[in-house]
Amino acid sequence: MFMVLKMRKKSKTNHSTINLPPGPWKLPIIGNMHQFLGSLHHRALRDLSKKHGPLMHLRLGEVSTIVISSPEPSILATKILSYGSTSIAFAPYGNYWRQLRKICSLELLCLKRVSSLIKRIASKAGSPVSLTEEVSSTISGIISRAAFGKKCKEQETFISVAKEAIEMGGGFNIADVFPSFQLLHLISGVRTKLERLHREADRIMENIINEHKAKAKTKAGEAARVEDFVVVLLKFQEHGDSEFSSTTDNIKAVILDIFSAGSETSATTVNWAMSEMIKHPRGMKAAQDEVREVLDRKGELHPPGPLLLPRECSESCVINGYEIPIKTKVLVNVWAKGRDPKYWSEPERFDPERFLDSSIDYKGTNWDYLPFGAGRRICTGIAFGLINVEPPLALFLYHFDWKLPSGMRHEELDMTEFFGVAVRRKHDLNLIPILCRCVEGIFPSLGWAWDRY
């Protein structure tokens, strides 16, 4: 009864005279939450936008939300897991965020990891392999070396925590849509689980940071240490801008950002790309022919994050004549943008060739294709993400032919999605690699790709 009275009071005082964008009818207390039952959230939002328009107002519990699903021009998990929203992804715009973005322009590569992946798959040629597991392990190893300078002792535990954090950070938890009802947080168990994940990640990162600090105090360690992310952030903490103070918790928040965002999105992109090509052999053959020709001579369908990270309006504004109040949550459905027939010909068809003669790129200047977001909050890891995706994918096509196990036909491949911050395959991608190019001499053949970065 208390909840009903409180929600009625809010509904009478909030937005009573504001010209909000159109949206579906809201139920008492839960608002529009019932319209996501049994559906993947990005698909449900797309279906609602078809009826109510590309700029749509929803109420998720007590949270007023604007959803953008057209190119026409913080949740509980972020507060706990990102150390009070101090990570690069969730920090509010300002001097602190600008400094973090500047630091995160650092690019650290590890080509040996990619080579090891190809050789490992080649050793299993002719037998089914879980490409999902192989890719995830390799990319996590690359990011671990970039972040820590070496393989972390508890890398697998840390990666597991980061993956859980991604699933919890997908939003739409009861604690996200009813932030003022603390009792619901307790009953749902969300806060307890998030705090457990936070403690585990914090313990591992604390050990890593202390180890880096100890090495920095010795002359031998100072001379030999690799410029990994922890080293860079510690240097900034010690010698950075006097107007901007960086704490150990800030460093931990950025490290968790790198793992939770970088590993899952890159692995998801590779897996969906391979899935689409296996399901469409003509596309696979064309890609293999082109890659092999280039190397011998020296994804609009599955954006890894279907919804850009939710943002909050720092001030009131007007879009297309509709008033957007301050503190309103804004969701951009990039998945829906990529499947809008108004802007794409046959949007549901896998057709990489549509980009061959197109000026559209992924850098945030084309509003109908925003895999990394746009504006000053565009993803800072674009270059690092491409490094994790393009070389492994190119080498998969160059060195191997691929087929499905157990005589499965390509049209039978299950393409079911699993929703989170990154929408990955619900089931692992299991394929049989057929070796058709020697795996020796990988480094020279890949030089052209690395020169791009």
From TrEMBL:
<dbReference type="GO" id="GO:0016020">
    <property type="term" value="C:membrane"/>
</dbReference>
<protein>
    <recommendedName>
        <fullName>Cytochrome P450</fullName>
    </recommendedName>
</protein>
<dbReference type="GO" id="GO:0016705">
    <property type="term" value="F:oxidoreductase activity, acting on paired donors, with incorporation or reduction of molecular oxygen"/>
</dbReference>
<dbReference type="Pfam" id="PF00067">
    <property type="entry name" value="p450"/>
</dbReference>
<comment type="similarity">
    <text>Belongs to the cytochrome P450 family.</text>
</comment>
<keyword id="KW-0349">Heme</keyword>
<keyword id="KW-0503">Monooxygenase</keyword>
<keyword id="KW-0560">Oxidoreductase</keyword>
<dbReference type="GO" id="GO:0020037">
    <property type="term" value="F:heme binding"/>
</dbReference>
<keyword id="KW-0408">Iron</keyword>
<keyword id="KW-1133">Transmembrane helix</keyword>
<dbReference type="GO" id="GO:0005506">
    <property type="term" value="F:iron ion binding"/>
</dbReference>
<dbReference type="GO" id="GO:0004497">
    <property type="term" value="F:monooxygenase activity"/>
</dbReference>
<keyword id="KW-0479">Metal-binding</keyword>
<dbReference type="InterPro" id="IPR001128">
    <property type="entry name" value="Cyt_P450"/>
</dbReference>
<dbReference type="InterPro" id="IPR052306">
    <property type="entry name" value="CYP450_71D"/>
</dbReference>
<keyword id="KW-0472">Membrane</keyword>
<keyword id="KW-0812">Transmembrane</keyword>
